[in-house]
Amino acid sequence: MTTRGAPAAGRGVRGDLFDPLCPTRQLLDRIGTKWTSMAVKTLADAAPDEVRFAELRRRMPGVSQKMLSVTLRSLSRDGLVSRRVEPTVPPRVFYRLTGLGLSLETALAGLRTWAEEHMTEINRAIEANDQAVDGG
Question: Could you count the other beta carbons within 10 Å of the beta carbon of residue 76?
């Protein structure tokens, strides 16, 4: 079944990942980025505490201020992260995972474990492929 348009209210609705309009595909596109994975992991490590924007950026080597801002905005929009602003000068902005965000961290942890368990095999395959391409 292909889900198009507005997401269904119930759970367990399956989509068609080959359809660019599939809500499941669109969600996977958003949560499948390295910065999303790193932000969720960083916030999960701090849970249940909040983390300030500047501290998140320090804990995520290589992320630009703009990319972190875009990532957190998307996570907040999806209900995975809550944002709290203290009205100081300059404003202090804090983030934490919601319950839904913590459930995403569980899934991402499984993917990280798989990557760690299979990285040696993947590296061997890459080396074999590179040698075959270079040698042929």
Answer: 15
From start to end of 10-76, where are the E strands? 51-52
Residue at token pair 């924007």? 53
- Extract the tokens encoding 124: 């061997």
Is the pLDDT at 5 greater than 70? The verdict is no
Contact 95, 56 (CB under 8 A): yes
Query: Taking the model in full, what pTM does it have?
Result: 0.80
Cβ-contact 50, 84 below 8 angstroms: yes
For the chain, the residue count is 136
Q: Which two tokens stand for residue 87?
A: 């009205």
Which pair of tokens denotes residue 99? 């319950």
Distance CA 19, CA 10 (A): 20
